[in-house]
Write a structure and sequence with these properties.
2 copies of one chain form a homodimer. With 470 residues, chain A is an alpha/beta fold. Chain A is built from 16 helices and 13 strands. In chain A, the strands form 2 sheets. An 8-stranded mixed β-sheet of chain A has the order 3-2-1-4-5-6-7-8, sandwiched between helices. In chain A, strands 9-11-12-13-10 form a 5-stranded antiparallel β-sheet. In chain A, strand 4, helix 4 and strand 5 form a beta-alpha-beta unit.
Chain lengths: 470, 470
């Protein structure tokens, strides 16, 4: 396909579009009258270049070329797709579309980033209204896939098909809105929540941070993976969506809000929602849905834990609270844990790499035990892993409890050799073994050197105890 | 601390509480008149046993004992914490509290799971109102950490402190609501969104599935990690929260909704929100906040990708769309990618285990290339990794582009030996090497066996080409 897109209007949104198109291999021609446009878009591009390719396991296409142009006529030359992100004022939008349509290829499509206007409003007065669609993205455009695609009443199905193809090609998820409406879908929710949040702050019920916490430690985690109706379908339990509505529907009449116009909860509405929810996931039983939900929540919570962010920070703290000092047994029991769902491939087997992570966690326990802990590292010393040999003996699955038994096989001067056995907790079967060579290094010189005397003594003590064991 | 909790009222919520307490080492005494209570709670417990321990890297305490009791008086015996989850009818709540308080330890606290009632309503008529608090959880209680803790006007700070301590101890995040209000905080948002969603379905704007997609491919991902105000602070860019409100505040007056009562956007309200947002994260610059946001989004999106769920399914499809067949060079270039943020520890170094994953991905490319692909595996044959030896030569960081060069060192009968070199793309520095032994196995007998002739021939061809190279 022709891979030239024009971006009319820069800023955070236009810049995000430009970055996504370019990283996905499209040439991008930009018009933005802001004298700072190049700098601003370069900043967005730099964030996008760092983050977007991280989502992929495969190489991305060769980057498209980004060029800046002094006129709309020049920018849209050769473009098969134009994304408009000018300020949210209808007269500016109309003037921009008129200028674009003077020279644009009649086969091209113009998508508007508007969050509020309906396509009929945008199209009013246009020479070719069917060329103009709403394609409303979400910030950051280079990471969030959602695009609300609103064709409106006056549309050409080929234009809708082409926009869908282009947006999918650059990794987005266009959702076609069935009828035009102010603010489309998502922003109606965002506005509703924003209004409630303003009341809560104004009335002193909660601060901005407490409100953010009430979202990101709770339903925000549910919505990231299932959205609204699917979450409630699961909440309805075995009886499903109809039961959920019977139970919670009437609560809408409670004085829970200052905003009171509520749709009548008629049989027709209940039937409509139940039928749509059945079409969405009626093929799955409640236990399957619950398992999907739990797997997704575990994976998201663990992802946040890896970043030390939001609910993940709480999990890190709770780990620290629960952690017990290592008992000096022979062998040491360095790991006791359950294999989480984010460690397995889609067949449910633990990924090869995660065996390495388990053994790395095991050696970290030894490090802390001998005194090569965070303070020791902060003082400029550490053990680095030089070589690992892992033998894979049995498959391991999500949900299994595993332990690792560790012996210090050698601990002399800067050299440390650990022998790990990973076992299934239920029957003691050995799942894998690992021989791990570590070298003590100075973090200043980045060269190997002997450990501090107290660490050396602790390592020697363990090596001696483990040599005489069984 | 005394670790006995009583659960009054089972169901999905009471069962979730029971599971969380028991898994965190508390003895749990349950009263629930439902004759099916034991079965229902066992089902919740089974889901919780599978999922909750997956969140932790450390061993959890020994499980507490769960017992069922025929009366409230018996259930609350010895309990220092009672969680009430009976139906949402005030007269049932009052009767339940009266019964609990007849025999409960005066030092104990009663938390109510109510989503709608205010503490003053719950406390009305109680012999000791200060013993009763709202502690409102979110389903699934065993995974989501949020608890809205509402003390109300009549409260004893020691009771609030004790409830906070207990909830934190079992891994939850109690957020103390500053003033009582119908539906607390989160359910006001959920109700607001539910009302809008009902309108959208009723008016034919979108189906339940399209609405769920509009959430989980878009702002749901933002809310899971930053919530509402922090997201908007970042959206405000360099000028921050005040700028965001100046830009978007007036939009509240637009005809975007059928629900029209909106707080006046006074200077006082703008000042209040700006000050709270500054207190929340004014210590961080906009670029730092953007980077945090992007890291969290990348980590969450990749977590969902691992599960093949929601926006993660889109990423899997896009990977497949972008994937190019392996060119038969010598050596093979089996991996070209960027190191994502979820592969690194908090110092930004790639985790030891992820080196193993990169090499595992590299060998999978070779497998597909020689014809040992999904269809081959589905037909009952596969290569299993028997042993990996990884030499760690240089540190690798998030955001770095890496490649892997792979040679077939040996390919004879059921034996396959691959040699991988992982290099930094920018300067070709070798970061790590891996020797990988694989065995061809029959998935039926689980024993080693020779590969199919076409796969054997392809492996032999590569081995020959790589033996004569450089």
């Amino acid at each position: 396909m022709t891979k030239t897109a024009a971006i009319v209007g820069g800023g955070v949104i236009g810049g995000g579009w430009a970055a996504r198109f370019a990283i996905m291999g499209w040439d991008v021609r930009i018009f933005d009258p802001d004298p700072e446009a190049e700098r601003k878009i370069a900043e967005v591009m730099s964030g996008a270049e760092r983050a977007l390719p991280m989502l992929y396991e495969v190489p991305l296409p060769a980057r498209g070329q980004i060029t800046f142009h002094d006129s709309i006529a020049d920018a849209v030359k050769g473009a098969r797709y134009v994304q408009e992100s000018v300020p949210e004022r209808l007269e500016i939008k109309h003037a921009t579309f008129a200028e674009i349509q003077k020279t644009l290829d009649p086969e091209a499509v113009i998508g508007s980033s508007t969050s509020g206007f309906k396509p009929s409003e945008l199209q009013a007065g246009s020479a070719d209204p069917t060329q103009i669609l709403v394609t409303h993205p979400f910030n950051p455009v280079y990471l969030l896939p959602l695009v609300e695609l609103v064709p409106g009443d006056t549309h050409d199905p080929r234009a809708v098909a082409w926009a869908t193809k282009v947006l999918t090609e650059i990794g987005m998820k266009p959702i076609q809105v069935r009828a035009e409406i102010d603010a489309h879908i998502a922003d109606r929710f965002l506005e509703a929540v924003w209004r409630e949040a303003l009341w809560l702050v104004k009335d002193g019920i909660a601060t901005t941070e407490e409100i953010d916490d009430a979202i990101r430690y709770g339903f925000g985690l549910r919505w990231a993976q299932m959205g609204l109706f699917e979450t409630y379908r699961v909440a309805g339990g075995e009886a499903g969506m109809r039961h959920f509505m019977a139970q919670f529907g009437p609560a809408l009449k409670w004085p829970w809000t200052k905003l009171m116009d509520v749709p009548d909860f008629t049989d027709e509405l209940v039937d409509l929602i139940t039928a749509q929810s059945d079409a969405q996931s009626g093929h799955m039983g409640i236990r399957d849905l619950e398992k999907l939900r739990d797997n997704n929540l575990v994976a998201i919570l663990r992802a946040l834990k890896g970043q030390g962010a939001a609910a993940g920070a709480l999990l890190q703290d709770h780990d620290d609270h629960l952690r017990q000092p290592l008992e000096e047994t022979s062998p040491l029991i360095t790991v006791r844990r359950k294999v989480p769902v984010d460690w397995t491939d889609l067949n449910g087997h633990m990924n090869e790499g995660r065996y390495g992570q388990v053994f790395s966690d095991a050696s970290e326990e030894v490090m802390f035990h001998v005194g090569a802990d965070r303070a020791y590292i902060a003082a400029g010393n550490s053990y680095f892993t030089a070589e690992n040999t892992i033998k894979y003996l049995e498959e391991t699955h999500a949900g299994e409890d595993i332990i690792v038994e560790t012996k210090v096989l050698l601990g002399e001067g800067k050299k440390l050799k650990l022998g790990h056995e990973m076992k299934r907790a239920s029957d003691g079967a050995v799942l894998a073994t690992c021989e791990q060579f570590l070298l003590h290094v100075s973090l200043e010189t980045r060269k190997s050197c002997p450990p501090m005397p107290e660490v050396e003594a602790a390592v020697a003590r363990l090596a001696k105890a483990h040599a005489t064991a069984d």
